[in-house]
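Sequence in, structure out. Go.
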Amino acid sequence: MRCFVAIDLSPEVRAAIVRAQAGLRTAAPQADVRWLDPAGMHLTLAFLGEVREDRVAALQSTLTAAMTPRTPLALMASGLGGFPSARRPRVVWAGIVGEGDALGRTAAAVTSALVPLGFPAEERPFSGHVTLARVRSPRGLRPLGDAIAAGAQADFGTWTARDVVLYRSHLRPSGAVYEPLGRFPFGG
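Output:
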């Protein structure tokens, strides 16, 4: 099964990001993108890939131990962007930042805790974001890039993350559906 570790958005932040996603759709109706289902929006801390079912208990135990010493995270969702750039994105995102480097430290704690279980640490630096769309072709990219640039300073709100979630991803033709396999509170 395909799994990842993530932080859920608050309902208010999700609603603000969904409004921004709708604005992008309106601004770039010809863009050849696959818009992500708002119900599945999350902040990924670690993508695990394929995981055997008999390893889920070890993952759950490891995540419990990794989160016990951590305190809840004050997070802010702000700004639209794209990877590799806002003008020529392959991925359209809303940014997520925490107080100081607390979010990056939390992501690092998750990934380093999983290394002994055989999950390699991410090579790229952590970049907190929520994926809004994946670009399929350059068609209609200019208006999309303009809309992303116009939202670079957008404020989507704040919330406190109190746990991380181990998710299983069910891939379907209509898009992925995420099933929580466990919630792991900060502070145990």
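Check: Helices lie at 11-27, 56-67, 102-114, 141-150. The chain is about 30% helix and 35% strand.
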